[in-house]
Design brief:
With 336 residues, the protein is mainly α. 78% of the residues lie in helices and 0% in strands. The chain contains 13 helices and no strands. It has helices at residues 2-42, 51-75, 77-97, 101-128, 136-159, 164-187, 204-212, 215-245, 250-269, 271-278, 280-300, 306-309, 315-319. It is globular and about 55 Å long.
Length: 336
């Protein structure tokens, strides 16, 4: 009995680190939405040119998606997470100090790489452990906690007089705690997070080709394309629309963005109930309906804020009920 209790306590160390890792990447990504107008002003950018930063972040994330399995198999999960958390923290520090827009764009790729490696590594750690695999939904809810915290922190610090560069120093400090956690894992030889995940016998392109031949994978990708596109677009631009185009007070605009992420977080916490009650198809249909209603309301009724928080994003996690699992040749893509 005591051995079992020690084992469970040991497992919860890894789970706690995993939860904080997802809070950290949520803060790092979502804080940008509130700071975007300040960045536009500092570098004299237009909404078109600032998209270079988003492209660089996506490119780093895609690179992580294709290389995470190889890196984890060579270095082990803990060392990969150490590299990833270091890259993420360094990117935020470059954001805070860079005098050149193009240096900041280059740092965006580093940020995307760090987020992608953490995302892939933590997802793999959770689903491969049978005792903690049921926590995968809760794990993604903790990303929402980080995502709602990012705009809240940024809005509050802007309101008390800090500039956007100083705020990125604060965000870097918060994320850097993940480095300390992972260093503890390595120094104290925490075995569950030091395993090496076996790489696939086939290349990433071969895996991609095989996945494209599976209809259920294509359908899932389509749903995720819609979901992630809407989530990222609203998360990055809603504050700018509210504060610049609609002249909403900046603090209210920032907190309304936090309300949007709060809606996402609540949706992930209560998703299990809807899946059990309605099933996957009905839950996805309901979620898409809520998204469309929320978008129309936010567009046509600019003086209200409920539409942002009403977009309970069930869609992404609902798609994971489809039978996509790890095999020796195809690695499951468990994005947020």
């Amino acid at each position: 009995m005591k051995d079992y209790q020690r084992t469970m306590a040991s497992l919860w160390i890894g789970v706690a680190i995993s939860f904080y890792a997802f809070i950290a990447i949520g803060i790092a990504e979502a804080g940008l939405g509130v700071l975007l107008p300040s960045i536009l002003s500092t570098y004299n950018l237009t909404p078109a040119t600032v998209t270079l930063l988003f492209v660089s972040q996506i490119s780093g994330y895609i690179l992580a998606a294709f290389t995470s399995s190889l890196v984890s198999s060579r270095l082990g999960l803990a060392r990969m997470l150490l590299i990833a958390s270091g890259a993420l923290t360094m990117a935020l520090m470059i954001y805070a100090t860079s005098a050149s827009w193009f240096v900041m764009v280059a740092a965006g790729a580093e940020l995307g790489l760090g987020v992608g490696l953490i995302d892939a590594g933590i997802n793999t750690y959770i689903v491969q452990n049978s005792r903690s695999a049921s926590l995968i939904g809760l794990l993604h809810a903790f990303y929402g906690i980080g995502a709602l915290s990012g705009p809240t922190i940024a809005s509050t610090l802007l309101a008390v007089g800090m500039n956007w560069r100083q705020i990125y120093w604060v965000l870097a400090g918060i994320v850097s705690l993940l480095i300390v956690s992972v260093l503890g894992v390595i120094i104290f030889n925490y075995t569950p997070m030091k395993v090496r995940v076996l790489a696939s016998n086939t290349t990433a392109l071969e895996n991609l080709g095989r996945a494209l031949q599976t209809p259920i994978v294509l359908l899932t990708w389509l749903l995720l394309l819609v979901y992630v596109g809407i989530e990222s677009c609203i998360g990055n631009w809603a504050y700018t629309v509210q504060s610049v185009a609609r002249h909403t007070p900046t603090l209210i605009a920032g907190y309304s963005l936090s309300a949007y992420w709060l809606g996402l977080t609540l949706g992930r916490f209560i998703l299990g109930y809807f899946l059990q009650s309605l099933g996957a198809v009905r839950t996805i249909s309901m979620s898409l309906t809520l998204v469309m209603i929320g978008l129309l309301a936010w567009w046509q009724l600019p003086d209200q804020f409920l539409s942002l928080s009403s977009k309970y994003q069930h869609l992404h996690k609902s798609t994971q009920v489809f039978p996509i699992r790890h095999t020796n040749n195809i690695k499951e893509s468990t994005q947020r």
